[in-house]
Amino acid sequence: MTVRRGDKVPISIQEHMAINVCPGPIRPIQQISAYFPRYSPWPEGAHAPTVHSLSPLDVAPQGAEPGEEAAELDNYDSDDDTALGTLEFDLLYDQEKCILQCDILKAKGLKPMDFNGLADPYVKIHLLPGACKANKLKTRTVRNTLNPTWNESLTYCGITQEDMCKKILRISVCDEDKLSHNEFIGETRVPLRRLKPGERKHFNLCLERQIPLERCQEWELEERGRILLSLTYSAEQGGLLVGIVRCAHLAAMDVNGFSDPYVKTYLKPDVEKKSKHKTSVKKKTLNPEFNEEFFYKIGQIELQKRSLEVTVWDYDLGKSNDFIGGVTLAMGAKGECLKHWMECLSSTNQRTEHWHTLTNELPGSTYTD
Predict the structure, then answer these.
(1) Is the bond preceding 66 in cis, omega lying within 30 degrees of 0?
(2) What is the pLDDT of residues 262-283, one digit of tens each?
(3) Distance of CA 162 to CAs 135, 172, 310, 356, 363, Å?
(4) Model-level pTM?
(5) Are residues 233 and 326 in the same domain?
(6) Which domain holds residue 172?
(7) What are the angstrom distances between the C-alpha of 296 and each of 18, 243, 308, 357?
(8) Is residue 11 part of a domain?
């Protein structure tokens, strides 16, 4: 295009309306007048009339150019600058029931993951350290949005005070893709020691990029779920009453994402293998309820020399059953296992219940069903 001397070079509207296309929350577009220079119509030394109402564009923050950021003053939010978005949720720990409740509320300004500039987000949570597949919980998927609302409660059972001191809750936001693998958007982590029993705590946190899962040296055994056991030494019957109450968040052993669990108990040493008891099989569940009891006739002094071995198995028709996890209660045990065993031995005719962590290995034991 030929431009004559003295003529002004035309400027396209695109140059005036430069829109920031970086990923993140959509910002309000400023008025086009903000991009043009302002000239005062009043001569030098004259006083302009008093203005009673000013547009946000007429008042810029100190140190900023006129029109810069001013349009966003009324709509400013502390999380507008996050590239991945924010997540709002509540946590509540019930120490008496050993329950950790996570209420997933909503997210804001998530990173677009689909071609339409939106996402299909859902939230999944894990307890670390531990087997992610065994303790994963997730919300439903909300379609085509960057600002989803879930208002869902996800609950962990069998969370002890020891867990609250050592474990971390990992909360991830992902994008569901039906034709390919689901995509990670962002995550946040909350140490459970920040929670006070019985006190609901509200969080509104920025999502961060994925943090590599480092193996924790303090937890060498892989966690495979939880089991709630009851122990009672009956002086009248002269023996130990073992109650298999329920399991929670067991590792999935079948291709359908579930297991067909049952529980076995042994009172060892048991050379003749006469102390074995088995519960019924619960089909297609990772949170079975058994409520079954077994009795071992044994003296209280002799019981101090024995150990109670509890194992959880996945039933498979026509082939070997799969070992899910186990736990041993004895004088040589540690943590909750030792505490529970001591309470049983020191109190007569009193039922005591404790949650125990199932691991993929029991020292000195061989697993054949």
Answers:
(1) no
(2) 999 999 888 777 889 999 999 9
(3) 17, 24, 20, 11, 21
(4) 0.61
(5) yes
(6) 86-206
(7) 80, 11, 10, 23
(8) no
